[in-house]
Write a structure and sequence with these properties.
32% of the residues lie in helices and 26% in strands. The chain has 10 helices and 14 strands. One of its GO terms (molecular function) is biotin--[biotin carboxyl-carrier protein] ligase activity.
Length: 325
């Protein structure tokens, strides 16, 4: 598919009536044979495009696959996604993005995979990535942020992800600090932020996001059967993955300036959705295990833990378990 395909799909989506091929050609400033050839290719790729003689073309349905031009056609302008790559299969989208970053690629590349053979979460844990059932993607970024602000990327991704799901489904979402998203008491998404430098010493960040979208209960491994869920399991309906992908990228792009311009508002949004604040928790941070009351998120998104002796610990990362009262 080509960039022209994204423009054709966007034009068809914007029209509520049949759109003549001649109008498409004029609007996109290409020849009529070019439009007709691309429409045929789109139909061959699985797009259900109805043609009515004398009226034109109407887009009825898109395939349930992630296709770069399909996502672009729903996205509009987004600096975070100047290029979208979709792999049918890869080991890990984060690994692919990290490799490109080390090789000197510029930011603004988003890498999706329909299947990950070695998907991973924090602390090197495996991430269950059922083929064609979720959104597994990573963003290569060279953010124009001071080094002190880079840790804020996880909070930015978490708030953007929670907001997208809430707006799409109308259901309240919780954030389990620092990087997990919960719905109805079950984990439905996670975030993995990493960083590195290329051969010229230029730093880059990779923010990976995994969302359980349309898995059934049987598609989760036994150890996750009672802990994880998909959006489809909770809502009782299949979710359009390309639409969700575009909504999420748009939300990430819209909120990105807040990292510097209004991070207190982002912290407030994370605080409102916090699964931990007010609870007694155990936090494993490196080789240390701490217990205390999750009291607050500080201005940089770190967790403030009130210990039993009254002291306050400030944590930038860790594995958190809520201790039942």
């Amino acid at each position: 598919m080509s960039g022209l395909d994204a423009r054709i799909l966007a034009a068809l989506r914007a029209s509520e009536v049949y759109l003549p091929a001649t109008d498409l050609a004029t609007q996109l400033r290409v020849t009529l044979p070019t439009v007709e050839a691309r429409l045929k290719e789109l139909r061959d790729a699985g797009f259900e495009i109805e043609e009515r003689p004398g009226l034109g073309f109407l887009l009825l349905r898109s395939p349930d696959r992630l296709i770069a031009d399909d996502i672009f056609s729903r996205l509009g302008t987004c600096e975070l996604a100047r290029e979208i790559v979709v792999f049918a299969e890869t080991a890990s989208t984060n690994d692919s993005a990290m490799q490109r970053g080390r090789q000197g690629a510029e930011g603004g590349i988003v890498i999706f995979a329909e299947r990950q053979t070695a998907g991973r979460g924090r602390f090197g844990r495996a991430w269950a990535s059922a083929p064609y059932r979720g959104l597994w993607f990573s963003m290569l970024m060279r953010p124009d942020l001071p080094p002190s602000a880079w840790p804020r990327l996880t909070t930015w991704a978490a708030v953007s992800l929670a907001s997208t799901i809430e707006n799409s489904l109308g259901l309240p979402v919780s954030i389990k600090w620092p990087n997990d998203i919960y719905l109805s008491g079950r984990k439905i998404a996670g975030i993995l932020a990493e960083s590195g430098a290329d051969v010229n010493g230029r730093p880059f960040a990779v923010v990976g996001i995994g969302v359980n979208v349309n898995q059934s209960q049987a598609e989760f491994p036994p150890e996750l059967a009672t802990k994880a869920a998909s959006l489809s399991m909770i809502t009782g309906r299949l979710i359009d993955r390309p639409t969700l992908a575009a909504h999420l990228l748009r939300e990430l792009g819209t909120r990105f300036p807040q990292i510097l311009a209004d991070f207190p508002a982002m912290i407030a949004a994370a605080r409102r959705r916090s699964l931990l604040l007010g609870h007694w928790v155990q936090v494993q941070s490196g080789h240390n295990i701490l217990e205390g009351r999750a009291e607050e998120l500080d201005p940089d998104g770190q967790l403030l833990l009130r210990r039993s002796d009254g002291t306050l610990s400030r944590l930038s990362a860790g594995e958190v378990t809520i201790i039942p009262s």
